[in-house]
Design a protein that fits this description.
With about 450 residues, the chain is α/β, with parallel strands linked by helices. The chain contains 14 helices and 22 strands. It has two domains: about 270 residues, 4-Layer Sandwich (Metallo-beta-lactamase, Chain A), CATH 3.60.15; about 170 residues, Rossmann fold (3-Layer(aba) Sandwich), CATH 3.40.50. The strands form four sheets. It has a seven-stranded mixed sheet. Strands 7-8-9-10-11-20-21 form a seven-stranded mixed sheet, with helices on one face. A six-stranded parallel sheet has the order 14-13-15-12-16-19, sandwiched between helices.
Length: about 450
């Protein structure tokens, strides 16, 4: 058996791992690279393994860095099946359509305003390409064994990261392989705790926060303080947010604060068409989260939902203080760019970051104190206050990741640390050995390991 590390190694994006058996190839996740240009350019490179030779895709969840390359996989010859949970199928369809639409719009804008080095600028894939993925999806319930071949089967088990997110237990050639996908926090605001693996010969564990612990601050108080401070000086709070789960988590916290009259009665806006559609996914899948239907309805009622871009423009030029939640979470695209173009250079405003900011993204640059930021070929001075609320991450921290390994009944032969920047992964490697005595390693991008 060979393991091909084609993405999500040395970085938190582009997750792609191929398990090569005697006659079959199984791809675990199929994500887009995001962040620095050298990584983004990998999205346009051919896959090291011919897509037509891949028999199955096992999809852990619907975030772009795990499903965003599927349109190109299909476009380049994949004819197999894509297994996932019901919420993951719903979310992936939304994410892929939104990703394609943004790429088409940005390519069009680049061609009109001539700020791209490419002439013409072209999207990585189109909306039509994204739609061609849907027929390949096969929905699977968690904890149900699914036979792939005579001697190979798998099952999903919940990982608590977002709606529908699961880890994978794969049995092949008398070996058990565990792929964590992204692991959520044990005490997440909306998600149930992750299910832990009981045994595994080889474990592929994410390491996004492998070198960090989330602060034990009162997140509700942090959000309250940020909103009140900004509104009191006549500013706007702009919250770049991932449309799946993070938008809903921030909504929930703000709703709780309003119920307790701890924040002012100003406009609270959701400006992410996909985030609004994800609310329907929440309502369709109550067993996957903690909110009941009544709470979902009450929470949504306090927000102004914006879908039309004309309404976005009106909101931007409305001089009254407001709180806006808009995608994308790492400020790589989407509606939030339009707000920041207008607000980033005004000191009364606040940009509230609520999740992981990958290397090379605008969010990471703001977090690291950048004095200017580039949108659509132009630089804007950063005068707005930039704050990070760490406790809202959908990723577990080092303690959560170590705890995820705590119920293993026997020592695995090897743990591969993926989906993390090198320092985070290497710190977790050491911590795993010190805690459990397990042998862990950090694979390289493009590495092939025989097991």
């Amino acid at each position: 058996m060979k393991i091909h590390f084609l993405g999500g190694t040395g970085t938190v994006t582009g997750s792609k791992t191929v398990v090569e058996l005697n006659e079959n190839r199984i791809l675990i996740d199929c994500g887009l690279f995001q962040g620095i240009k050298s990584l983004r350019e990998l999205n346009r490179q051919p896959l090291a393994i011919e897509p037509s030779t891949i028999d199955f895709v096992l999809l852990t969840h619907g975030h772009l860095d795990h499903c965003g390359w599927l349109p190109l996989l299909v476009k380049n010859g994949f004819k197999g099946k894509i297994f996932c949970t019901a919420p993951t199928k719903q979310i992936s369809k939304l994410i892929l359509a939104d990703s394609a639409k943004i790429q088409e719009e940005e390519a069009s804008k680049a061609n009109q305003e001539h700020f791209s080095k490419h002439n013409p600028a072209e999207p990585l894939y189109t909306v039509a390409d994204a739609e061609r993925v849907t027929p390949f999806f096969r929905v699977i319930e968690p904890n149900l064994e699914v036979k792939l071949t005579d001697d190979c089967y798998f099952k999903f088990f919940p990982s608590a990261h977002i709606l529908g997110a699961c880890s994978i237990e794969l049995h092949a050639e008398e070996k058990t392989l565990i792929f964590s996908g992204d692991v959520g926090q044990d005490d997440d605001v909306l998600m149930h705790p992750p299910q832990k693996p009981k045994s595994g010969d080889y474990i592929f564990l994410e390491s996004t926060y492998g070198n960090r612990l989330h602060p034990q601050n009162d997140v509700l108080f942090e959000v309250e303080k940020i909103i009140n401070t900004t509104i009191s000086r006549g500013g706007n709070v702009i919250i770049p947010s991932f449309a799946v789960e993070r938008v809903q988590t921030v909504m929930y916290l703000i709703w709780q604060l309003r119920l307790q009259n701890r924040i002012p009665n100003v406009s609270y806006i959701i400006d992410t068409p996909m985030g609004i559609r994800v609310l329907d996914v929440f309502n369709d899948n109550p067993k996957w989260h903690k909110l009941n239907p009544h709470e979902c309805e009450e929470m949504c009622r306090m927000f102004t939902m914006i879908s039309d871009y004309e309404d976005t423009i009106n909101a931007i030029y409305d001089k009254r203080p407001k709180v806006v939640i808009a995608a994308s979470g790492m400020i790589t695209g989407g509606r939030v760019l339009s707000y920041l173009e207008r607000y980033i250079d005004k000191p009364e405003n606040t940009v509230m970051l609520v999740g992981y900011q990958a290397e090379g993204t605008r969010g990471r640059k703001l977090l690291e104190g950048a004095k200017e930021v580039k949108f659509y070929g132009k630089f804007y001075p950063v005068e707005a206050e930039v704050v990070l609320v760490e406790g809202l991450s959908a990723h577990g921290d080092q303690k959560d990741l170590l705890n995820w390994l705590s119920e293993l009944k026997q020592k695995p032969q090897k743990i591969f640390l993926v989906h993390g920047e090198n320092e985070a992964a290497d710190t977790l490697r050491t911590k795993i050995f010190d805690t459990y005595g397990f042998d862990a390693t950090v694979p390289l991008l493009g590495q092939v390991v025989e097991i």
